[in-house]
Amino acid sequence: MSKINSSIAFVLLVFVFLLSLLFGSYQSDTLWISIFFIILSISVVFSTYRQISIQAFGVEWKEYPKSILFVVLGAIATFYLAKAGMSAVLASSLIGIAGSWVFKRYEIEIFTGSFVGMSSVIFFTAGGVVFASLIAAVAYLMGKNVFVGIGGKLGSSAFIGTVFVALFSGVDVWNFDIAMINTSLPIWFVAITLLFSALASVATSQLAHRYFKGSVVIGSSVVGILGYILSLAFGFYSGLFAGTIFAASFAGMSQIKVLKNPLYFAIAGLITAIIILASSTYFLGLGGKMGTSAFIGVLATLILIKKT
Question: N or C: at which end does the chain have fewer Cβ atoms within 10 angstroms?
Fold first, then answer.
């Protein structure tokens, strides 16, 4: 399979996500955010082109069955924890840690599945989650050796699955009639969220490499749990805060050779948070949206710092 074909799913989903944000910002007459997403889109286009041009496709086919199985198991476990009333962020984080401890070899697959399982129980049934996780598993395997070291790629795989199932189930994922920017968000909340998101990205990388033997899954999961705990102090905005922090941690899952220093990790986390806050009324209840936001955030950061 060609380099371009191996990454086409990621490219298409990223562009769909960006185009929806662009259209939504136009509909809400928010000029500054429209300009922001236009610049972001251009950055992603160039960064994507350069990533595809330097990375090759390759998959160990014999690993397909086990990899797919663990993606599905991670999705189902997370989905049922959330269905039982647990926060989706907390559920995914716990499954990530448990998966890393019990099935170390397949921690990435399990964590990928957990993002599918974060999908809203309002929109998805267990069967829908299984179907979405199967698609996500295929997307993960297709893109295993492209965009190497780019944080958010796992969530992007999950997003491919959930969007596919949602669209064919008749779920309205666009919501263009709703203003993209939630103007009721207080400035203090936005400021605090952006600050903690930048820190979350840096913390994920530092925790993973200093304390968890390079396991970015555990690093992200620990930050996710801490973000959830902190979110309890934000009342009505707790869900948005926890989700944004968790998303920023995905940017922090990038390899150090990709984002060279803590400042770049912080920038990636900051951009990720802006995307999450700006798209809070889009793709509601679809697992993988946070990871896709982080994926875009890291790509944008790479082109901004001219280090791709």
Answer: N
Instruction: Give the C-alpha separation, 236 to 67, whole Å.
Output: 38
Structural domain of 264: 3-304
Give Dmax over CA atoms of the chain in angstroms: 51
Residue 282: what residue type?
Y
The radius of gyration computed from the CA coordinates of the chain, to the nearest angstrom, equals: 17
Residue 256: C-alpha distances to residues 43, 48, 176 (Å): 20, 19, 37
Domains contained in the chain, number: 1
Residue 120 burial by CB count (10 A; 0-12/13-18/19+): exposed, middle or buried? Answer: middle
- DSSP assignment of 291-304, as one string? HHHHHHHHHHHHHH
CB atoms within 10 A of CB 41: 18
> 123 is written with which tokens?
């929109």
Nearest 5°: the CA angle 261, 267, 269 is 105
- HSE, side-chain direction, 13 A CA sphere, residue 130: 4
Q: Each residue of 106-122: pLDDT tens digit?
A: 999 999 999 999 998 77
Rounded CA-CA distance 16/150 in Å is: 19
Q: What digits encode the pLDDT tens for the residues 258-285?
A: 998 999 999 999 999 999 998 887 777 8
For residue 200, which of 290, 108, 119, 303 has the smallest C-alpha distance?
A: 290
Tokens for 10, please give them.
Answer: 């990621």
Q: Give the three-state DSSP class for 59.
A: coil
